[in-house]
Write a structure and sequence with these properties.
This protein is globular. With about 260 residues, it is α/β, with parallel strands linked by helices. Strands 1, 2, 3, 10, 11 and 12 form a six-stranded mixed β-sheet that branches. It is built from six helices and twelve strands. Bound molecules: fe (ii) ion. Fe (ii) ion (FE2) binds next to loops.
Length: about 260
């Protein structure tokens, strides 16, 4: 079974480069499951229902988000429009599972591929250098224990490499893949951990790389140089799609290969 995980889509440049490549990558690698992190797809801040629908139209099975999930108010009603046991598109847009209880949306989706393989996607968010939220490690323990599918993909949306590596080791042998998002910079440490979990600290952004993690570089530089606040705008230049391909045994969920991808225009 082949899984394609596309890293954080940032703004219109990110949406465009993913549109350009997603179809041929799915076809060439006989992809069975497509997960996309769309946390910054709407101008760098959140995701709208329309962008979510467009991503599903182009082949996504599940969308993950992150700390920017509440940036677009219209997403609240979209998330709330599908009940917990639904397979509908709004139910397949995830937000981190270890947010405070009772918020809109869900952190886990369990589905079946077109080929008939049960799978689950779980999103967690880190706490190091981020807003305080519930413990992602204990949340992972509780949620993974309740998932029946063998194939489990975890999107760990976190800032610190240490926390992400720790989550990889913590879940090794219990999930198919632990893939990091949020820093927007791909790391070169993709590997299969000893008990069969594919791991990469950060998949990298699908967005404009002539930028500072997606934002127009002059605006961020100005803030660093002066300390003055400013309005951030999504950059456009040098878009690349960053993704990872994970092959796994559908019967056991154990990963057999992981490959990093970075595709430009
Ligand atoms: Fe993020």
């Amino acid at each position: 079974m082949n899984i394609l995980f596309i890293g954080d889509i940032f703004g219109s440049a990110g949406r465009r480069i993913v549109r350009e490549h997603i179809g041929h990558v799915i076809a060439a690698h006989e992809v069975d499951l497509v997960v996309i992190n769309a946390a910054n797809a709407a101008g760098g801040f959140g995701v709208t229902p329309q962008i979510a629908e467009d991503s599903f139209d182009r082949g996504a099975d599940v969308l993950a988000t992150g700390n920017h999930v509440w940036d677009k108010r219209e997403l609240f009603d979209y998330l709330k429009s599908a009940p917990a046991d639904s397979q509908e598109r709004p139910r397949r847009v995830l937000r981190p599972a270890n947010f405070q209880p009772g918020l809109p949306g869900y952190g886990v989706y369990e589905g079946v591929t077109q080929g008939g393989v049960d799978y689950a996607v779980l999103q967690l968010q880190g706490r190091v250098f981020m807003t305080p939220i519930d413990d992602p490690f204990r949340a992972a323990d509780a949620l993974v224990a309740g998932i029946r599918a063998k194939v489990i993909v975890v999107d760990f949306h976190a800032e610190a490499t240490s926390e992400k590596v720790a989550m990889g080791w913590h879940l090794d042998g219990r999930v198919t893949a632990v893939l990091g998002t949020h820093t927007h910079i791909p790391t070169a440490d993709e590997r299969i951990l000893p008990r069969g979990t594919a791991y990469q600290t950060d998949v990298g952004m699908s967005g404009p790389y002539d930028s500072i993690i997606g934002v127009e570089k002059e605006l961020v530089l100005h803030k660093f140089l002066t300390g003055m606040p400013g309005k951030f705008e999504a950059a456009k230049g040098n878009p690349k799609m960053c993704a990872v391909l994970v092959a796994c045994d559908a019967a056991t969920g154990r990963a057999t290969a992981i490959q990093r991808i970075m595709l430009g225009e």
